[in-house]
Specification:
This protein is an alpha/beta fold. 34% of the residues lie in helices and 28% in strands. It is elongated.
């Protein structure tokens, strides 16, 4: 399911856009300002962003500029500016930053959906052409090197149940009941774990889905692992995780 992020400070419009895209079959996340939008783009990697221009924290132009700086080596999701601003200099500024479309309020939601579909199709073709180079790739090594007091310990990926953040440290829970405390943040290992099939289900947890035993319903939900631990699932990860679980265990 393709993911759309709506960044809009007007509550009524934000909720209306969420409903429009949800009814059209998309997975939708929302942010009330540019700062929230930035965090969600970096963390959740949406397939497309619909963004207002005039917002608190970061406006739409500042948000896209910040994303350009942060994701220099990645394929940035299509940005559609949805705004009441009609001055030509605003349109030029948005396009100069790499905006894909500039849709003026009030808008026709059928036209908006058509533009979204076209941009998503174009993104898919681009990623296919680039060999999905924006996604992390496995380097063929089946062990993870973790620092310890004596140097490095090599742990097979298929023995790791989950990685859990612990402030500036992180814990690796292993098959058999062992646990390793590592003096690095979880972010240090996120890319290599995801490239080997792990899933980040929460800001504080990356799990090996092969050790998942049961999904427990809730606002976000919880994932019961084979070692008996219960991992929280972020609300915005719920739909993606359920889809993956259904594909694995159906």
């Amino acid at each position: 399911m393709e993911k759309i992020l709506v960044v809009e400070d007007e509550t009524h419009l934000r909720e209306s856009l969420e409903e429009i895209f949800s009814l059209a079959g998309y997975s939708v996340n929302t942010a009330a300002n540019g700062k929230e939008g930035f965090d969600l783009i970096i963390e959740d990697k949406p397939d497309l962003v619909v963004c207002d221009v005039s917002m608190p924290e970061l406006d739409g132009f500042e948000l896209l500029g910040a994303i350009n700086n942060r994701m220099r080596e990645e394929v940035i999701p299509p940005f559609l500016f949805l705004t009441a601003k009609v001055e030509s200099q605003d349109i030029r500024k948005g396009m100069s930053l790499g905006a894909d479309d500039y849709i003026l309020k009030p808008f026709d939601h059928f036209n908006l959906l058509e533009v979204v579909r076209l941009r998503l199709d174009k993104r898919k073709k681009l990623l296919d052409k680039l060999g999905s180079q924006s996604q992390p790739k496995s380097n063929g090594i089946n062990k993870l090197a973790l620092p310890n007091e004596e140097g490095l310990i090599l742990v097979p990926f298929d023995k790791i149940i989950k990685c859990e953040a612990d402030r500036a440290y992180c814990n690796f829970y292993l098959k058999g009941g062992d646990k390793l405390l590592v003096s690095k943040s979880m972010k240090e290992f996120e890319e290599v774990l995801v490239s080997h099939g792990f899933i980040k289900v929460h800001n504080s947890n990356i799990v090996n889905i092969n050790f998942a035993e049961k999904y427990l319903k809730g606002k976000g939900g919880q994932l019961l692992m084979t070692d008996g631990s219960v991992v929280p699932v972020a609300v915005r990860k719920k739909v993606e995780l359920i889809k993956i679980l259904k594909g694995l265990f159906s």
